[in-house]
Amino acid sequence: MALGDSFTEGLNDPGPAGGWYGWADRLAGMIASAHPELRYANLAVRGRLLDRIVSEQVPQALAFAPDLVSFSAGGNDIIRPGSDPDEVAARYADAVRRMTEAGSTVLVFTGFDTRETPVLRRLRGKVATYNGHVRAIADRYDCPVVDLWALRTLSDRRAWSADRLHLSSEGHRRVALLAAQAIGIPVDGDPREPWPLLPPVPRVAALRENVHWTREHLLPWVGRRLRGVSSGDLVRPKQPELAPYQDARTGRTTRLGGGGCATQSPVRASHASAEQRTSGA
């Protein structure tokens, strides 16, 4: 069960039917290829702040207690003026505690390093502070961590879509690979694979790109914040119920196994195996 905001909804990774695909759908496909009994839900909605994620999405995770919950939240709170990463992290920790106590493994995410992102680079210290809390929370509740801050290949502009706020399709693919590694799912690919070299962008061309980005993306985003409007106000979750995984690329649905429930879920087993490999057991 995937909880969160636009990052987990999958913006801007186009699906074949006009919706968004994204790292969470890609990760579900990786799990389903080896474990066709997988059931999957994606409750994430763009623009959601932590409190709405906790009030709207977390209760479903508590009710169903899925084997694995991905929980990326708080990023939209952190980039708001005047927000306190310590206070946001305290509310985040309470949600993680409740979900782990319900029996779920909670997959958590650090924030991206914003050093290369115009405007948001000013918030790098706040993001780093929040990341420190996320890692401490993960230690406290035995959560696997997807360390986006340390994934240096995401600093390449090709990892990002035109708005510079959401990942490109290749960025989503790399995050899915990193998430799979975090829970011990074997993958055919390396999220840290270097990008092919590109010629440098001429200064004048870079300036034009920045002006275009400011007009088309930054100013509308700031305007929504000033009006108290969210891009997700009229958006519903794309996969609100736990159901057999259906690949958005092929339309193919995984078949459920006929032998009842496994004694240990594939996600929990894989996480345990990853811990054993880390500890040398």
From TrEMBL:
Annotated spans, Disordered: 232-281
SUPFAM superfamilies noted in UniProt: SGNH hydrolase
The species this protein was found in: Allostreptomyces psammosilenae
Transmembrane segments: none
Record's protein name: Lysophospholipase L1-like esterase
Taxonomy, superkingdom: Bacteria
InterPro entries tied to this protein: GDSL_Rv0518-like (IPR053140), SGNH_hydro (IPR013830), SGNH_hydro_sf (IPR036514)
Cited Pfam families: Lipase_GDSL_2
SGNH hydrolase-type esterase domain boundaries: 2-174
